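Example S7 (structure tokens).
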């Protein structure tokens, strides 16, 4: 079981790409360099022309993989949430006591990201920076309902429900498990953002404070 989980891959909704970037070296370079560029300059300044120049390829070659940069951003965010889901499964699947499983799950989802050698073409730290700074932008469009129906955000929703299930396992009577779970995921990103840009608005600097705060938030809410 441990070996099976370690070998699991992040699977992304094929509606987000025209050609799977994981299937070719060029596709992996597009993803890798795109992460580096968006992390450095922000999504507003990023475009496929600049990315093409960075990787020494025609802009048109990138459009063979992704329809536009909005879908590219959703793809990157989906990959991050899928990778985080795998981490959650890896770190909790052997824990049988519900409260300890919930604590470990909260720690996994709220601590700062470290590089994962399992995916050589992905800089998880830079990708986390993108999600911290850009995570709301995939949702804030007029097409969000249609995109949701097409499964663009399925991985994120699945991760929310995994944590919600852990909450219910500890306290089946708690009525707001999904609300609390989504608050943990988005709240963690928000406080990483505050730590970088508005440090006077948060005390959550450092690993210990992040995990401690969200543990206390969840366990107090469910009275455990």
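Recovered sequence:
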């Amino acid at each position: 079981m441990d070996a099976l989980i370690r070998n699991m891959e992040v699977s992304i909704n094929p509606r987000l790409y025209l050609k799977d970037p994981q299937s070719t070296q060029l596709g992996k370079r597009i993803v890798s360099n795109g992460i580096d560029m968006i992390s450095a300059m922000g999504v507003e300044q990023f475009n496929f022309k600049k990315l093409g120049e960075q990787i020494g390829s025609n802009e048109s070659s990138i459009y063979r993989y992704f329809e536009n940069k909005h879908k590219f951003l959703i793809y990157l965010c989906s990959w991050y949430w899928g990778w985080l889901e795998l981490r959650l499964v890896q770190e909790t699947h052997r824990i049988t006591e519900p409260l300890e499983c919930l604590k470990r799950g909260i720690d996994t989802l709220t601590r700062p990201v470290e590089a994962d050698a399992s995916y050589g073409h992905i800089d998880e730290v830079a990708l986390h920076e993108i999600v911290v700074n850009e995570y709301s932008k995939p949702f804030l469009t007029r097409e969000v309902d249609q995109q949701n129906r097409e499964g663009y955000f399925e991985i994120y929703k699945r991760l929310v429900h995994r944590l919600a299930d852990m909450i219910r396992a500890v306290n089946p009577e708690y009525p707001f498990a999904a609300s609390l779970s989504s608050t943990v995921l988005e709240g963690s990103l928000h406080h990483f953002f505050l730590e970088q840009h508005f440090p006077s608005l948060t005390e959550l600097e450092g690993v210990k404070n992040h995990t401690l705060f969200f543990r206390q938030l969840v366990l107090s809410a469910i009275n455990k």
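Notes on this example. The chain has one domain: 2-221.
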